[in-house]
Every structure is written in C-alpha cells, then in structure tokens.
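seq as requested:
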Amino acid sequence: MLQKTYNWAMGAAARPGAERTLAIVSFVESSFFPIPPDAFLIPMVLARPDRAWRLATICTVASVLGGLLGYAIGALLFDTLGQWLMQTYHLEAGFEKFKAGFDEWGVWIILAKGLTPIPYKLVTIASGWAHFNLALFVLASIVTRGLRFFLVALLLRLYGPPIRAFIEKRLTLVMLGFLAIIVIGFVIVLKA
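struct tokens:
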C-alpha cells in the first residue's frame, strides 16, 4: 500500500497539475488543513530537482497567502470557525498558551513556530485573534515559511539521490517517521 502511494506521489510530482496541487495544499495547511505541504514538496523535488527553487517558492507564496486566510479566521471569525478549528484539532490548550505570549513575543512566536512541526494554522489564527500587526505578520511568515521550504529544497537538491534511495529502501520507516513528526507537533501543542 505504501509503495503504491509513494509511486503515485512520485509520478504525480512530474505531472502538469502537480504545482497547482502543491500550491493548494500549502495554502490550506496554513489555515485549516492538517497535512503539511512537505508531504508533496519532498516527492516533487526528488522527482524534479531542477525545479527545487520554483517549488519552494510556490510553497512559500501559497503558505503566506493561506496564512492570511488563517489570520482572517482569527480576526473576523474566531467565535465561529476559529473555535471550531481549534476544537476539531484539539488545539484549545495550545491556543490559550499562544494567546498569553503573543503580546510580548508575537513576531518571535511566528518565526519559531513556522519552522517547527507545530501546526502553522495555530500561529496564523492566533495572530489574527490577537490583532497582531498585519504587515509584520506577513513579513515574519515570508521569512519563516521561506526558510523552511527553501531549506527542504536545498537539502533535497544537494542530497536528493541518496535521500531518494534511502526513502525507497526504507519506505515504511520513513512514512512512520513523517507521521510521527506530525503527531509530535500536535502533541507539543496539546501539552503546552
């Protein structure tokens, strides 16, 4: 099953609509979707290392634009949609901690959390709820998301063939590790 999924992802990564899919996933992950864009970025860069910078740019731009949707959810729709998203992903406790530190550490929270497996939607919605300076939010989002996606692209461009061989040889282990990173991000928020 995993091998079929991996083969599909590698094949899909080279298809014409792949970049659109990457942009959509990057956009929605920043505001409400649970799967990080890395799940699409990694196979796409492995399949087409010559497009690594383009793909990282697509992830960054779409993620920042999706972050603006998350910001709007926090600023304008928190009592309805924002609360529902926090409850759906069991992020209420983590959100309360974010709210408490936002006045003092807002920009640093955005920069630090944008690089981690902690769900970025938590950061974007909390930024809007706190009415954090929108221009500073956008700038910090560009820096942190760009750094994250360009670092992934750089590492895959430099070490792609050995990484691809490792992934293909130990696919189950890699997928479990990736899933563990996502779960750890949610656990960190829940324990906060």
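Residues 124 and 166 are 34 Å apart (CA to CA).
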